[in-house]
Amino acid sequence: MDDPWLVVGLGNPGQQYAGNRHNVGQMALDVLADRIGARFKSHKTNSSVAEGRTAPGGPRLVLAKPNSFMNLSGGPTSQLLAFYGLDVDRLIVVHDELDIPFDTVKLKRGGGHGGHNGIRDIAAAAGSGDFVRVRVGIGRPPGRMQAADFVLRDFASTEREALPNLLEDSADAVELVITQGLEAAQQRFHSPKD
């Protein structure tokens, strides 16, 4: 069975959003695309798509960045699932997570959307929330800053130093889910850091 894995990185389109915390899912996909030697190209599902394999003879990956705004990620994602003939059990969504400390990656399958409108829209459009989420911790906003303002800001200078490692960890998490399964990935990323 050579069904690909669809890996969707969430974010907002346009250069003005490229460095925002909300776009960390798309940043992680750039790391994955580099690893598999693939380039993003425009796709008829209102997405940018890069395809390749984790290794020669390894699993096929379809990396996708919806061209819609975050809150409307469901349409492009459900179109991609239909285009490639995949069920949600072959879907991995990489997204920012306010309720996880910065520089932390957590994984789960299914569950609620936790107030994340991109996840809510994908679950509604796909008819199921039973997909793997790679949740990239961005932490809570400082003081009284609204969450909506916080996620639409670029990472702070101190965070930018750690960001490359966080993106590598996020890419590793996706690869582990695909090659060894969700449980193995959870064991690696959910155990306390040394």
Structure notes:
- The chain is of the alpha/beta class and 194 residues long.
- It has a single domain (5-190), classed as Rossmann fold (3-Layer(aba) Sandwich), CATH 3.40.50.1470.
- 37% of the residues lie in helices and 21% in strands.
- It has helices at residues 24-36, 74-84, 117-126, 147-151, 157-180, 182-190, and strands spanning 5-9, 41-43, 47-53, 60-66, 91-97, 105-109, 132-137.
- The protein has a seven-stranded mixed sheet, sandwiched between helices.
- α5 packs antiparallel against α6 (182-190).
Question: How would you summarize the topology of this molecule?
Answer:
Elements: E1 5-9, H1 24-36, E2 41-43, E3 47-53, E4 60-66, H2 74-84, E5 91-97, E6 105-109, H3 117-126, E7 132-137, H4 147-151, H5 157-180, H6 182-190
Parallel strand pairs: 1-4, 1-5, 5-7
Antiparallel strand pairs: 2-3, 3-4, 6-7
Helix pairs in contact: 1-5, 2-3, 5-6
